[in-house]
């Protein structure tokens, strides 16, 4: 006897009819057809009803959460999965978060970026002695990375506050600077600064080495026929040229101050700001340290523009903040 005959006589037939409808809907969705009610063709119904194991599997799937309504939107499953994956992917908060030397960025549980001290052992291995640096504690570090990571770990301590890069290269014996040698140092430094600016002017084809205002200043020096060409010169000749062509040296001295006064640009040079200039010089010019110490006339650990200019022999009336361009 068919269930269509027993319709309305028992719950058992109602359940079997429901299972049958679910199975038909499922088949129609897989075939890409629109959902339709089961037909009244008895042979088809009988065949589906007799496949009890298959019907039971659908029932089991339904019991564990396969809602028949969800089957209707099967065509959108892929789109739904993509959305879920995009929601799970979290942007790396450290991508645009910059840390100072010696620190690296990490995120906490709420994906908030923060800077923490770098482990010195994670620094890349040095390729040679040219990457070594000597600290003010007279200790050689394999690289500047290792130095700054070590300094970071000492933050808040007296030792960490005093630790700086002394010079580039492994630590070595530096001869003491005599008074006579100290007086000679600014002669070579002034000439060197002037030649550096002229070289930058000559090579600035892409306009990324000097600003337009700086170029106008250097152009006057470059085109001056009286300019002392770069080369090995006696101290007497350097002193004579400074006296004779004094105006050529005013801007180079101001320019170098402006190049160093960057972090922050407040009109004062700290030990850290001086480092890019003094660190490479010390192994070649043993009077470097004493010279810059002498520039700090009031011993306040900062070198102001007027103190800097005085060190290089620039007259007070020629010190001009407007030349820091």
UniProtKB/TrEMBL annotation:
UniProt subcellular location: Secreted, Extracellular space, Extracellular matrix, Basement membrane
Top-level division of the source organism's lineage: Eukaryota
Domain Kazal-like: from-to ranges: 116-173
InterPro entries reported in the protein's UniProt record: EF-hand-dom_pair (IPR011992), EF_Hand_1_Ca_BS (IPR018247), Fol_N (IPR003645), Follistatin/Osteonectin_EGF (IPR015369), Kazal_dom (IPR002350), Kazal_dom_sf (IPR036058), Osteonectin_CS (IPR001999), SPARC/Testican_Ca-bd-dom (IPR019577)
Disulfide bonds: 94-105, 99-115, 117-152, 123-145, 134-171, 177-287, 295-311
Primary subcellular site in the record, as a coarse category: secreted
Biological role stated in the UniProt entry: Appears to regulate cell growth through interactions with the extracellular matrix and cytokines. Binds calcium and copper, several types of collagen, albumin, thrombospondin, PDGF and cell membranes. There are two calcium binding sites; an acidic domain that binds 5 to 8 Ca(2+) with a low affinity and an EF-hand loop that binds a Ca(2+) ion with a high affinity.
A GO cellular-component term linked to this record: basement membrane
GO molecular function: calcium ion binding; collagen binding; extracellular matrix binding
A UniProt-annotated Pfam family: Kazal_2
UniProt keyword annotations, A-Z: Basement membrane, Calcium, Copper, Disulfide bond, Extracellular matrix, Glycoprotein, Metal-binding, Secreted, Signal
Name the record gives this protein: SPARC
This protein's record includes keyword Plastid: no
Family, similarity comment: Belongs to the SPARC family.
Signal sequence segment: 1-36
